[in-house]
Design goal:
Shape: globular
Low-confidence stretches: none
Structural class: mainly beta
CATH architecture: 7 Propeller
Helix content: under 10%
Number of helices: 0
Number of strands: 18
Distance between the termini: 47 Å
CATH class: Mainly Beta
Strand order of the largest sheet: 3-4-5-6
Number of domains: 1
CATH superfamily: YVTN repeat-like/Quinoprotein amine dehydrogenase
CATH topology: Methylamine Dehydrogenase, Chain H
Order of helices and strands: EEEEEEEEEEEEEEEEEE
C-alpha cells in the first residue's frame, strides 16, 4: 500500500530504485520501485510558495522486485530492470507490461537513451541496448569483464565503475570504442 500526504509518500517496503524527470513549465514526474515488487509513477506539481502536491498516476505490482528504473521524459512509459534480469516496458497507465528482454543476472541500472532505445547494465557483466518497441534479443552488447559497482548516464554517454577497480567510458556514437582507465 502507498499512502501520500502533501509532500510525503509512505511505502510498505524499502525503496529499491527511484528516477526523477522534469520538463520546464510542466509537473515533474518520478518513478520508484520497492522491494514488494511495486512500480509507481508520481506527478509533482510545485506551485510557488507552497509545498509540492504529489499525485500517484499509477502503481503496478510486478512478478519480481525491480531494482533499476527510468521513465521517459515525454510520456508515462517506464523501463524497469528486475532482480531476475528481466527488462520490462510499462505503459498505458500501468496496465500493460511487456518483457522486452532479459539479462542472465540482476539488472544494476537502466536508462532511456531515446524514444525507443534503452540501455541497461547488469551483474551478468554486460551493458546492453534494447529496442523498447520490440520483445526479443538485445540490439547491442558490450562485455565488461567484471561486475558493475556503479554507473551514471549523461545524454548519449555512460561511465561505469567495475568491482575490479576499472572505470569505463562509453559514447553511444561509437559503440565499438569503450575506453578503460588504467589502474
Amino acid at each position: 500500500m502507498i499512502s501520500a500526504s502533501s509532500s510525503c509518500i509512505d511505502f510498505q517496503d524499502t525503496i529499491a530504485a527511484i528516477s526523477w524527470r522534469a520538463i520546464p513549465r510542466t509537473p515533474a514526474q518520478f518513478v520508484c520501485a520497492s522491494w514488494d515488487s511495486k512500480v509507481s509513477l508520481f506527478e509533482v506539481d510545485h506551485a510557488p510558495h507552497s509545498n509540492p502536491t504529489i499525485r500517484c498516476k499509477f502503481s503496478r505490482t510486478m512478478e519480481y522486485p525491480c531494482v533499476a528504473i527510468d521513465c521517459q521524459i515525454s510520456s508515462d512509459k517506464i523501463i524497469a530492470g528486475s532482480i531476475n534480469g528481466d527488462m520490462h516496458l510499462i505503459e498505458g497507465e500501468g496496465q500493460v507490461s511487456t518483457r522486452i528482454g532479459s539479462h542472465e543476472d540482476a539488472v544494476k541500472g537502466v536508462y532511456y537513451m531515446s524514444e525507443s532505445c534503452v540501455c541497461s547494465v547488469s551483474y551478468d557483466k554486460t551493458i546492453r541496448l534494447w529496442d523498447a518497441r520490440l520483445s526479443g534479443p538485445d540490439i547491442g552488447r558490450i562485455n565488461l569483464g567484471a561486475k558493475p559497482a556503479c554507473y551514471d548516464f549523461s545524454g548519449r554517454n555512460m561511465v561505469v565503475g567495475l568491482e575490479d577497480g576499472k572505470i569505463g567510458i562509453l559514447s553511444w556514437r561509437e559503440l565499438s570504442r569503450f575506453f578503460w582507465s588504467k589502474r
